[in-house]
Automatic annotation (TrEMBL):
InterPro entries: Cyclase_SnoaL-like, NTF2-like_dom_sf. It holds the Pfam family SnoaL. It comes from Amycolatopsis heterodermiae. This is Ester cyclase.
Length: 137
């Protein structure tokens, strides 16, 4: 078995410390100054500020947030991760009102690395599962 690459180790550290841990003060250590999120939604900043906003939104929406990295692979200068985000849904998440129940969603991310930092990002978010309030009949 080969040792984990530096880029994969950086991605794992980012997920653990920033997304799961909520340590937005570390974002500048992981992202290039000219970082661009190619999947930013309309009205969302596509730079470091957007990453700060998403991280804060995650921790507002999900109490006890945990992030499981299912797969993390690298090809060339791109690191791809398949992750599951889990927590108690206590705040609005992407327009879904809080349910108070345990919930999860999956994310597939692709990050182009440059000099050990994130330079570009693309993602696909799966639907929020479990804990979604049922609509009245």
């Amino acid at each position: 078995m080969s040792a984990e690459s530096g880029n994969i180790a950086r991605m794992r550290a980012f997920v653990e410390q920033v997304h799961e841990g909520g340590r937005v003060e570390l974002i500048d250590d992981f992202l290039h100054a000219d970082f661009r999120n190619r999947s930013a939604k309309n009205g969302q900043p596509d730079d470091r500020r957007g990453v700060v906003a998403v991280t804060r939104a995650l921790h507002t929406a999900f109490a006890g947030l945990e992030v499981e990295i299912v797969h993390c692979v690298e090809t060339g200068d791109v690191v791809a991760t398949h992750k599951i985000y889990r927590g108690r849904h206590v705040g609005e998440w992407l327009g879904t009102p809080p349910s108070g129940q345990d919930a999860d969603f999956r994310v597939m991310d692709f990050v182009r690395m440059r000099d050990g930092r994130f330079a570009e990002h693309w993602s696909v978010l799966g639907p929020l599962t479990a804990g979604i309030p049922e609509e009245p009949a």
